[in-house]
Each structure stands twice: as structure tokens, then as C-alpha cells.
Amino acid sequence: MRRHRLTTENETINGIRVRGIEVSRIEGLTDAVFGLAVTLLIVSEEVPKTIDELFALVLGFPSFAVTFMLMLVIWNWHYRYFRKYGLNSEKVMHANGLLLFLVLLFMFPLKFLASFVVDFVILEQWFGFDMPTNYQMSADKYDLLHILYACGFASVFWCFAWLYKIAYDARDVIELTELEALRTQIHLRTFIVVGAVPLATIPLLYLPTSLAPMIAGFSNCLIWPITKAYTATITKQMNASFTEEELV
């Protein structure tokens, strides 16, 4: 079977020893689905027939880049999970199947939201670019779009939390050390927090101000400081509980 590019003995990722050397059929299916998702994003754009249509397509690249980068980040987290644990149980297949379903389901809503925010709000309204797409959306329709995004985002990240819960429950089977089990728990809780932040922004849509949609949208940026603060707190606790040799 095809092997991963890193197979050295005692290799670690995020402080967890690599156990997944062989590429499983689950990973092969996942690679195919992510490849299909990216292909659908590309073919959804019509081939330009005039120079104006070409420039219009080029101006839409930033929103495509945002969508593509998020897809790449999700794929990388998936890759690292299977590298660390090498699990192929029935529970993993269920969680992975749901993850793939959600990726395909929310791919186009994510692309639409990225296009609306990047092309219309940032490039056109803030910087004055004459973007080719004319977005006409009422406030209540934007609220529904924001809720759809928040639910999709949370669902994907909670799928990763489920995968890490499966790995933690199998800690005796895959022989996780105490420190590895703790780091697995940290990943699990972090994904729960990351998924919860967008859901927590939904009530902000109903603030008594016309800026409520913008406040709710940019509140998603709180994911970064919240996860950083949580990671810093847990790191201090680990440093106090384990020796430097154990932490390596």
C-alpha cells in the first residue's frame, strides 16, 4: 500500500506519536471527496467568453481563495488525525462519513458567504471596486445565511471533536500515554469551543442596531483569541504536571 511521506520511528505530531503509517481506505475516500469538492467549486464558474468576463472572474478569485483555504485546512486536520491515531473502527467510519457529508453540503453556502463578504462588503463597499455580481439581500435573508454558516461550521468542527472523542475512548487499545491522552482531550475540547463560537454569534444578529449583522459576522474572529487563551492555560497546567523530558 501507499505510505505517508513521514514514516520515521518515534515521529510525533502535536506531541502524539504517529501510529497511522499505511493509508487507509477511509483516507482514500476522503481525498477523493475533497478533490471532488474543489473541482465542483472550480467548474461552478463559467468559462469567460469576453475580456470583461475574464476580469470579472479574476476579481472573484479572493472569495474562491478563502473557500479553498478553509477546505485545505479541514483536509489537513483530517490528515493529521489519521497520522496520529491510525484508527479505522466502525465509529470512525460513521464520524468520517458525516464529516464528508457536511463538507459537500455546506461547500456552496460557504462559497456564497465568502463571495458576499469578500466581493461585496470588503472589495466593493469598503474599497470601491466595481464587482461584477450585484448582491441584493434583505436583512432577514442575511440573518438566515449567517445562521446557516454558523450551523455548518459548528457541525464540521464537532465532527472532529467526535473523532478525537473516539481516539480518547480507544486510548488503552492504541496505547496512548498519559500525556498523549491529555493532549487528545485538549484537541477534543478545542474543537468543541471552535464550533461553539459561531453559534454564540447568532443572538448578536438581533441586537437593536443596524450594525448587528456586521457585529455578528466579525465576532467569529473571536475564535482565535479564545482558543489561544485556552491553549495557554492548558499548557501552563501541563508544564506544572509533567517534567520537561515527558513534554518532549
What does this structure look like?
With 248 residues, the chain is mainly α. The protein has one domain. Helix content is 70%, strand content 2%. The protein is built from ten helices and two strands; from the N terminus they run ββαααααααααα. It has helices spanning 25-43, 51-59, 61-85, 90-105, 107-126, 139-169, 178-200, 212-218, 223-241, 244-247, and strands spanning 12-13, 16-17. It has a two-stranded antiparallel ribbon. α4 runs antiparallel to α6 and α7 (178-200) runs antiparallel to α9. The longest helix is centred in the middle third of the chain and has 31 residues, at 139-169. The radius of gyration is 21 Å and the shape is globular.
Short synopsis of the structure:
This protein is an all-alpha fold and 248 residues long. It has helices spanning 25-43, 51-59, 61-85, 90-105, 107-126, 139-169, 178-200, 212-218, 223-241, 244-247; strands spanning 12-13, 16-17. The chain has one domain.
Summarize the SSE layout with pairings.
Layout (H helix, E strand, L loop, with lengths): L11 E2 L2 E2 L7 H19 L7 H9 L1 H25 L4 H16 L1 H20 L12 H31 L8 H23 L11 H7 L4 H19 L2 H4 L1
Antiparallel strand pairs: 1-2
Helix pairs in contact: 1-3, 1-4, 3-5, 3-6, 4-6, 6-7, 7-9
